[in-house]
Amino acid sequence: MSTSNPSPNDRRQHYLNAAYGLRSWLLTVDHKRIALLYLGSITFFFFIGGSFAVMIRMNLLTPDGSFLQAETYNKFFTMHGLVMIFFFLIPSIPAVLGNFLIPMMVGAKDLAFPRLNLLSWYLYIIGGVMALSAAALGGVDTGWTFYTPYSSTYSNGNVVIMGVGAFVAGFSSILTGLNFIVTIHKMRCPGLTWFRLPLFVWAMYATSVIQILGTPVIAITLLLLAAERIFHVGIFDPRIGGDPVLFQHFFWFYSHPAVYIMILPAMGVISELVATFSRKRIFGYNLVAFSSVAIAMLSFLVWGHHLFVSGQSIYAGLVFSVLSFMVAIPSAIKVFNWTATFYRGSISYDTPMMYCFGFIGLFTMGGVTGLLLASLAVDVHLHDTYFVIAHFHYIMVGGAVMGYLGGMHFWWPKITGRMYPEIWARFAAVIIFVGFNLTFFPQFMLGYLGMPRRYHAYPAEFQVLNVMSTAGASILGLGYLIPMIYFIWSMRYGKPAPPNPWGATGLEWRTPSPPPTENFEEIPVVTEEAYDFEALARRDAAALRNEGELQNG
Amino acid sequence: MFQGIPIQPEQASSIARQVDYLYYFLSATAIFFSAVIFSSVFYFSVRYRRRVESEVPKPIHGSLPLELAWSIGPGIICMFIFAWASILYFRNANPPEGAMEVYVVGKQWMWKLQHPAGQREINELHVPAGRPVKLVMTSEDVVHSFFVPAFRVKKDVVPGMYTTVWFQADQPGQYHLFCTQYCGTNHSQMIGWVYVMQPRDYENWLSGGGGGNMASSGERLFQRLGCATCHVPGGGGRGPQLQGIYGKPVLFEDGTKAVADDAYIRESILNPAAKVVAGYKPVMPTFQGQVTEEQILQLIAYVKSLTKDQGNVVENPSEDKATPKMKAPPAGKKP
Ligand SMILES: [Cu+2]
Ligand SMILES: [Cu+2]
Prior knowledge:
The complex is a heterodimer.
Chain A: H1 22-26, H2 31-59, H3 70-105, H4 114-136, H5 150-154, H6 159-186, H7 199-231, H8 244-278, H9 285-298, H10 314-342, H11 351-374, H12 376-382, H13 386-416, H14 422-449, H15 463-493, H16 533-552
Chain B: H1 16-47, H2 64-93, E1 100-107, E2 110-114, E3 120-122, E4 124-128, E5 132-139, E6 144-148, E7 153-157, E8 163-168, E9 173-179, E10 191-197, H3 199-207, H4 214-224, H5 227-230, E11 249-251, E12 257-259, H6 262-270, H7 293-305
Parallel strand pairs in B: 1-5, 4-10
Antiparallel strand pairs in B: 1-2, 2-3, 5-8, 6-7, 6-9, 9-10, 11-12
The structure holds copper (II) ion (2 copies).
One copper (II) ion binds near residues 144, 181, 183 and 187 of chain B.
């Protein structure tokens, strides 16, 4: 390995300059390049989904919703949800950072099935194009939940195209999960036992299990929905003998675990950040690793907490409630262990760590408000109000997106070989944190007051809080633009990044930035546990001595 | 400080306060855990900030007692909350005996309500204070949800089945009624008001109108649709007599049993072959498509009114006045 500091200007071969031209990108099987393909596409979708959010918040500035027509508003929140969930959040960390890092973290040259990996990206793009064409052809107004019989019988939108789009994108997610699982099982380098793996890999493993087991269920459900809509087979519509609540069960059987597809990878990123920026092994490594697996398993048993007022049996409600409380425990374990890791650490406040603090704060708030929703009698009041909206945005934006941005800043030097401007980055992190809270905290209050979700217009007494939320959203939107700008800027003008700018321990930091196409100059051998900063210091010292001797001798 | 920003919804039902106590407890728990985490993260990150660029702290591998403490501790609190919330939920799920009933049909995008005495309302519900009210609800099209924030009650209104919700309003006033299950374009217009009135005002309001009580409308339908040709009082018709069956178990051809409740009668009308009464042939035709959800509710009200010894005498004759409908103003205005 090399700890010297090669400037990227020396004509060293790396994955970015190994080949040029569109073809070399569109037909690449290099996991790092595919990760960048994903990065470009999910960023595109993030801004599409974000513009819908802007419209939604603009419309809610006034109680009568005069900015948009009701139908347009409904289409916009539907598209916002669908785009953000299926085309941004689900692929975000797994397909970008997972793709880029998993092979490097396990010391491999690539994923187990590089061509399958490229196919996954194409499937994702096909799904995305279908979703956008459904929007362009007149939109979909079912909400991202597609509840029947509205979606199957009453909605005039392009439900089928949209459904097929999500269906195809689902396959991309399944294949990515499969690829990761096989890679983690089969391609670890010599010495890298399961309990020496970085926690990000554990988290991605758990995520992949959910993707493989859960996504087929939503695929089947969407097919049944299409069958009912096209052939009028009675499955969910009671008029032709179906059961509308059955759809809700199917839908949430996937979509609850999907929440964990979004949050587990972020938890993995946070584990890396906590360890690196406090220079300490994660407190309770084993438990943090196992809690990912526990979350993955329990996540399949709590879908009924979305149906407490649906007419589902009250005894079923009881079981789903107790299980929902149980799934909170492994998440709490993680937060406590991260906190304990800071104890007697050596903590620095680089940008990734700012996002990490943001994550811990917002995820904790999202988690504890989840307790209110798991409590049967209280959920009756809060269900389908803005409280739920606030809760899951704290988890999925406050948690998953903060984790994603933290990870992007952390690995950006590795990915591009360039540093971003630290001052701007910290500034953006603070703006995002403030904007986020101003947007979503008032929504907790709105929900408790009783404002239902998906309302194009609302009673006047809710206006003050809505205006606050919209103001926050403007700040948040600005906050997201800043990293976009300086990331792009840094690709050309950023300071060249050394191989290991943060003093981190993972294998990915033992190879130059950006890495060569085959990731490592020689296959690494692992002789130590994860996050062994003392060993890293010893190795660095030895390398320095060597260099000195070479120069002197 | 919070002038202009409301922070609590009105408490206007017997359970609102109980739900709120749990809500406060939960909020306090949430704030407590957040505070513990925020303050320790804050303290550690200041206390143990990096002072020397090259420092490497001693690793700490973990601590089983700590892990046990912070999984079992919150676990116990969770189970306590779970028990509390579930007891409340169960209590709130079962309407007390003798609750006054109102029938609700949701439809894109309005609420249609009918009182047993016959009054029909749209997007408005008048109820007396201090009396339990049970709503029997269904939908003509898609799923809706009946939500009165001031009462802390909510229940989905699902096509093809009856769901119930009950409350006892204890503050006269005017309260929001919202549809909370997204139901299409004008979902946000599927709103209305619940008027809680002093019992005496409610009686006045009731006597103010309505086109005959639900049971007698049901009886007229029963004649018109030809049900009466098969279901003859005292038995002997092609179908079983319906006197006194409501709420009693019915034995079927295949040996199974079920209680004749609203859902069962609805099914008997729409899909009679699903459960065939022991000793009868499945000759009853389906009335699917010939009766609306509201008419089915009237037929149910009629069947319910048929008691064993009374034959088909309709109860509650006092409410059967055919004076033109007048709406009483809400008894109290909210403060
Ligand atoms: Cu869920
Ligand atoms: Cu609605």
